Structures are given as structure tokens and as C-alpha cells.
Amino acid sequence: TKYDRNDEENNFIKGQDAYKATMKRILTLLDTCHEDRRKMLNVPETDDSPFGFSNRFTFS
């Protein structure tokens, strides 16, 4: 089969998009878990970490 640079680049871009979508989904889930837990424990929101995680929680 003949090597096609366009195929290679398209596959790379598809892979990158899939990776970004997956990471976004994971971070959204983490934020949702954090939010649910915060409500459950009735803890005020804190901005001490990048993904909405608070330093006062340890996730096991």
C-alpha cells in the first residue's frame, strides 16, 4: 500500500480530538463528584485548586 501523508495527519487529528474529549469527560465527572460530595457534606465552595477540588478532601 502506498503511504499517504494526509491519512496519517487525519488519523493523528482524530486521535487528538478523541483524547481531548475523553479528558474533558473525565474532568467533568471529577467536578460532578466533587460538587455532589460538597453538597452532601455541606461545605462551602473553595477555589484552592484547578479542577474545583478542595484541599480539605482526600479522594480514596
Folded structure, characterized:
With 60 residues, the chain is an all-alpha fold. It has 1 helix and no strands.
Break the fold down into its secondary structure elements and pairings:
Layout lengths: L4 H37 L19
List keywords for this structure.
single chain; 60 residues; mainly alpha; 1 helix; 62% helix; rod-shaped
Short recap of the structure:
By secondary structure, this protein is mainly alpha-helical.
Strand content: under 5%
Describe the largest sheet. Answer: none
**Using DSSP, what is the number of strands?**
0
Segments where pLDDT lies below 50 for 5+ residues? Answer: none
Order of helices and strands: H
Radius of gyration over alpha carbons?
A: 19 Å
What proportion of the residues is helical, as a percent range?
Answer: 55-70%
Distance between the termini: 50 Å
Mean pLDDT: 74
Structural class: mainly alpha
Oligomer: single chain
Write down the overall geometry.
Answer: rod-shaped
